[in-house]
Amino acid sequence: MNNKSLLQRRKITTASFVASAVLAISASSLAAEEFPTHPLSMIVSYSAGGATDFQARVVTSIAEQVLGEPITIINRPGAGGQVGWNYLVQSGEQEGYDLAAYNVPHFIAQSLKYDTHYNIENLEPIANWGADPAVLIVGKNSPFETIDDLVTYAKNNPGKITVSGAGLFVGHHIALLQLEEAADIDLKYIPTSGGVDALRFVQGGQVMAGFNNLSDAYRSRDRLKILGVADLERNEKFLPEVPTFMEAGYEIDDSSVNFRGVMTRSGVSEDRLEMLSEKMVQMFNDEDIKSKMEKGGAPLRVMGRSELKEMWPRRKVFLKELFADLNNEELEQVK
Question: Which of 39, 70, 212, 307 lies 20 to 30 A from 178 at CA?
């Protein structure tokens, strides 16, 4: 073979290599742009019909329009959310298709108090859709008409008032611990598998009171009495007549407000996390979604990934300090 033929062959080989590399890069870019290419799934760690489940189904109802693929809701209730969130970390894939609805302070508080598989280090925030305060509720026929009525009875009957909530170290439980501390009373906490059961316990008379989500209580307000809101201000849109605990004279802040949003396990590429965040913020701000959430008594608070990456660590520090301030003996009894 002469030198001219050899040179031509080398040029062809080099050109083929460059073309292959360009095609590979193009295919890789195309694959990234095409995400998602099949339906996504989102774990709801609470029972069907509860506030988190109801809201998750509403805010993801236009996923196919916005993302190009639908989001399937999968309920994995148990242990105040631990079953579902442990499943995500242990069994979820790292491609961005396996998501979960999060509840803050719930999962952060549980990771501080229990040996969970999840924590803020191995979960990635995507977007937040709501902020749902805890409210103190009693049955329609309860003799308690105000927070003071319940506190007075509790002072005269220590440990006799049973109070339901959606598990241990969730927002409901935190609100109860704060009430015990602020009012210097002893209550008997009855943790359930989720907000639905906690609400039913109050409606059915199995407990004397309960802490629940404002949104759930609002939808069931004809069958309940709502005595107080654990937030810094009254909710003028949904419960303008219900006072905050602070208005009633009890130092209970917004520590138990339930922030809800979407997360996934660590390992998903930052490009996909940012894309999902952008698209979900778009979904949550859709006017039809806003209307449906308002009809369901669900307060909106839309935040993107960057804001949540700052909020999660702040809440962790805050909860550590809160648990240190609360009655340690009480905390140990419920573990």
Answer: 307
Enclosing H/E stretch for 103: strand 98-104
The pLDDT, as a whole number, for residue 322 is 84
Q: Is residue 28 part of a domain?
A: no
Q: Are 219 and 297 in contact (CB under 8 A)?
A: yes
**Dihedral (CA of 216, 218, 224, 225) sign:** positive
Kind and range of the H or E run holding 151:
helix 147-156
The answer to whether 172 touches 198, Cβ cutoff 8 Å, is: yes
Q: What is the pLDDT of residues 42-99, one digit of tens each?
A: 999 998 988 899 999 999 999 999 999 999 999 999 888 999 999 999 999 999 999 9
Side-chain-side CA neighbours of residue 323 (13 Å) = 20
- Give CA–CA dist 319/33, Å, rounded: 39
**How far apart (Å, rounded) are the C-alpha atoms in residues 96 and 126?**
10
Q: Are residues 97 and 124 in the same domain?
A: yes
Read off the amino acid at residue 232: L
Residues 83 and 217 in one domain: no
The pLDDT score that the predictor gives to residue 40 is: 98
- How many Cα atoms occupy the beta-carbon half-sphere of 45 within 13 Å? 27
Instruction: Give the whole-angstrom CA distance, residue 150 versus residue 74.
Output: 38
Q: How many structural domains does the chain have?
A: 2
pLDDT value of position 2:
55
First to last CA, the chain: 83
Q: Whole-prediction pTM value?
A: 0.80
Same domain, 150 and 106: no
Specify which residues 91 forms β-bridges with.
none
Tell me the per-residue pLDDT of 276-298, one tens digit each, with 9 for 90 and over.
999 999 999 999 999 999 998 89
**7 vs 83: CA distance, rounded Å:** 65
